[in-house]
Specification:
Shape: globular
Number of helices: 4
Helix content: 10-25%
Low-confidence stretches: none
Oligomer: single chain
Largest sheet: 5 strands, antiparallel
Number of strands: 9
Length: 180
Amino acid sequence: LGWYIHWGHGAIQEVIDIDHDGQKEILFTGFYNRGKCVALLVMRPDSMQGFSPWEVGIENECPWWIPGSQVAYILFPKSDVGNLSGELPSGYNFPGPNGIRLADDGQIQVNVSEAVNDEHAPELIYTIDHRLRVVKVAMNDCLVTHRRDLVAEGKLPQIEDVRAYFDSLRNAVTYWTNSG
């Protein structure tokens, strides 16, 4: 193992060969402090070093900053539910209690909680393929119910085009790959 500094915090969720190249990768989920959102970090155990992405120009401010060697660093922005004032502690969405699930077809499902609910976990479910790209976004039943309640309370508009709604969430995902 090497070293890696992540601008936030997280935990190891899985160790798998996600890209089918014969080497296992470590999958972490956690917070990315700068973006106030959930991050999925994919690292190779034999080549970990550097810092997670920060912002353009950081190398000019911090001469000791070394670009990270992550295979991928994926940020999941807050949805309209998560953006509601008071819905999330500290304004963050957070890794869902269901964490990461591995599908039989080799895809990964990353669960991202969008609201605090003691009884249930209202989550967006991002499906990621072996190329580490989000191919699908869905809501679990708890989030569907929670969002429906917010619409009934007049806090959110009704979703007119469900496909466009999920496409906008998928398109808002931010990707960083190895050192860039």
